[in-house]
Amino acid sequence: RHDPPLPLPKKDHSGGDGDGDALTSNPMTGQRLYQGTWVMEGWIPGIVQIQNGGGFTPRRGDVILASPPKCGTTWLKALAFATMARGAHPPAAPDHPLLRHTPHDCVPFMEVIVSGGWGSKLDALPSPRLLSTHMPYSTLPASITKNPDCKIVYICRDPKDMVVSMWHFLRHPRPNLSFNDMFELTCEGRSLCGPFWDHILGYWNAGKTMSGDEGQPEMTSAAVLFLRYEEMIKDPANNVRKLARFVGQPFSAAEEETKVVDDIVDLCSFEKLSSLKVNKAGPVVFTKYPRESYFRRGGVGDWMNHMTPEMAHRFDALLQSKFHGSGLDL
Ligand code: A3P
């Protein structure tokens, strides 16, 4: 079944005042405001279909990787794929799929796939499916969030590094976008998938309502595991173990003995993935961005090379005002 993309919605779907067409566009970034979030215009048909239950039917065992853009999505996709597929594809195998396909081709973005009319590809994936999304928690359908058979893994990153990474990324299609403009857009909540604080807090609060530090499910909700890029950089192996436990595939003693976790970390390292031909040449099939643009530099703290002390101070004050009282220290 190939679901044709829907036309852009004419009405405000945000549940707000409902006073006519509430979509707002930003020609500088090609984004539109949809249900309170700035998304790429081309994703909206897919988001609408997913929300209406037409483009995607959740299945028992589904694992959905969620993130704001430029916060380590590509890395998380690789790690989760290598972890969940390790039975069929040992991470040290010379023909591992991640050596031949980009992480984005191994783990598709639901809204992009459905927008493109390729919803049937999601149906055809074997269980347990591994999918991804940039959709905020509030825009996910209840068939996912209220589904104890689904699991959500979220990754976020120091928002100051996210701004820098986003700026470099968006300059591929828009070379005239200045860092200052990117910074202002982000502070106004208008960066891609912004306001970023709503995106992060949506998943953080959903994860907080779970019992246990690894987001064990309430009986009525999808469990949420909240990961942080900086912690993964510090200790990738233990974060991979946490991920494996969360998806119900903990590493056995025999796997620990044979260093499977280290093999996964090595396979998915920035150095390894960015050196592969498949992650260099041409565009990612579904997103159309150059493959190499997903592997810029990696690591922590590049904001120091781009933000003035005044900018950093202003941004810290914004973080403090948005995350104060949430229990999340960003
Ligand atoms: P930088 O632009 O700071 O280098 P996303 O995948 O969400 O688009 O995020 C992209 C960011 O993750 C980029 O950050 C990119 O370099 C970094 N990244 C990509 N692959 C990585 C990996 N294997 N390990 C660590 N960071 C990675």
From TrEMBL:
GO molecular-function term, one example from the UniProt record: sulfotransferase activity
EC number: 2.8.2.-
Annotated Basic and acidic residues bias: 1-16
Signal peptide positions on this chain: none
Gene Ontology annotations of biological process type: sulfation
Stored InterPro entries: P-loop_NTPase, Sulfotransferase_dom
Keyword entries, A-Z: Transferase
GO cellular component term of the entry, any: cytoplasm
Domain of life: Eukaryota
Coiled-coil ranges (or none): none
One Pfam family recorded for the sequence: Sulfotransfer_1
Domain Sulfotransferase: 61-327
Top class in the EC scheme: transferase
Region spans: Disordered: 1-27
Entry's family note: Belongs to the sulfotransferase 1 family.
Protein name, per record: Sulfotransferase
Native species: Triticum aestivum (Wheat)
